[in-house]
Amino acid sequence: MNDIEFAGTLPVREEIREVFNALVSGAYTNFALVSVTFNGWPTEAIVTVNGDEEDTEMAVITPLAVFLSEEMKDSLLSPFGDPLSDREI
Questions:
Q1: Is 18 within 8 Å of 1 (Cβ atoms)?
Q2: For residues 59 and 49, what is the distance between their CA atoms, to the nearest angstrom?
Q3: Which of 9, 47, 66, 73 is most buried (CB neighbours < 10 A)?
Q4: Which residues of 45-68 are buried (b: 16+ CB within 10 A; e: fewer)?
């Protein structure tokens, strides 16, 4: 499958491209694209969904990538309360 081109103004890290390509390839049946909210903003996340070894009625959902808009990016702060740079996201 060809690499997916991402639209938008934010840079897309290679790791995110790899996760997205794995999602759309169909090779991994436990990957999912889900709608979520981040700081009150609607967005999407790529997650893995795995069974819980101790509780078969429970699923463990692990986010692999969350897509951020400019507004979301601007609301992110470091542990010290400073805005994050593009390099840190």
A1: no
A2: 6
A3: 47
A4: bbbbeeeeeeeeeeeeeeebbebb
Would you state the pLDDT for residue 28? Answer: 83
Token pair belonging to 68: 């951020």
Q: How many CA atoms lie within 13 A of 40 on its CB side?
A: 3
17-24 CB contacts, 8 Å cutoff, 24+ apart: 19/46, 19/64, 19/65, 20/46, 20/65
Kindly list the distances between the CA atom of residue 88 and the CA atoms of 11, 21, 27, 46, 59, in Å, as whole numbers in the listed order.
Answer: 12, 23, 30, 19, 30
Q: What is the pLDDT of residue 84?
A: 67
pTM: predicted TM-score of the whole model, two decimal places: 0.59
* Kind plus residue range of the DSSP H or E element containing 71: helix 70-75
